[in-house]
Amino acid sequence: MGVPTPGTLALVGAGEFLPPIAPVDAMLLERVDGTPHVVVLPTASAPDGPGVPERWAKLGIDHFSQLGASAEAVMLLERGDADDDSIVARVAAANFVYFSGGKPRYLLETLKDTAAWQAIMRVLAAGGILAGCSAGAMVLGGELFDFPQLWRTIPALGIAPGIIVIPHFDEIPAAFTSTMTLAKRKLTLVGIDGSTALVRSDGAWSVYGRGGATVFNGNHKRRFASGEQVPLPGEANRAGR
Questions:
Q1: What are the φ and ψ backbone dihedral angles of 107, each rounded to 5 degrees?
Q2: How many angstroms separate the Cα of 66 from the Cα of each of 22, 26, 71, 150, 216?
Q3: Neighbours of 39 (CB within 10 A)
Q4: If we measure between CA atoms, which residue out of 172, 165, 170 comes closest to residue 216?
Q5: N or C: which end of the chain has fewer CB within 10 A?
Q6: Is the pLDDT of residue 135 over 70?
Q7: What is the CATH number of domain 8-237?
Q8: What is the pLDDT of residue 216?
Q9: pLDDT tier at 239 (50, 70, 90 boundaries)?
Q10: Which residues contact 1 (CB under 8 A, 6 or more apart)?
């Protein structure tokens, strides 16, 4: 289902809810039309065991509260939750939705084709903000690496349809990067450093934060520093799956 996305999309490489990313999140909060209400979804961390999503939820609430925003955690931890009316209503009431990290494929399979995902797309279509860190950023691209099979990809949620997101890029060994980029892919690979966000607003992408973003397009590689605009494909065909 194609849905226009006039809101702001933020893809964070790593370090959600930690002090170094606070200036980026403060900037995003300033873009909210009206009083910010943040919903933190620790969904991707559910496979990591009891207590882990709760820890991420608390970190997220504390982080955004310190930035002066109203924040709540929505414990959407399995696919059945994503079609639960009460959970969907709480997501729909937000104007800033944040996916923390964990297992990308689990997050994708939990959200895809659900009422909660439709609600999130409506938040974005209404001019709100959707942010994802690490696994939360990966699922928002056009495709997702099928770890550990780095030569394979699977369709992702497609809010940024022209790209494959590589988070933690400044922590990845060069050999891994070579494996990811060797295959000729139809989508552009984008590596995002920790404490750094690649942000799409008004149809343009820009880098914010401590690090940079590295774009692989065919045989070409280019790095962009904080404050620079990044030319990326897919803006004419934005869609959610």
A1: -60, -45
A2: 9, 10, 10, 38, 36
A3: 24
A4: 165
A5: N
A6: yes
A7: 3.40.50.880
A8: 92
A9: very low
A10: 118, 239, 240, 241
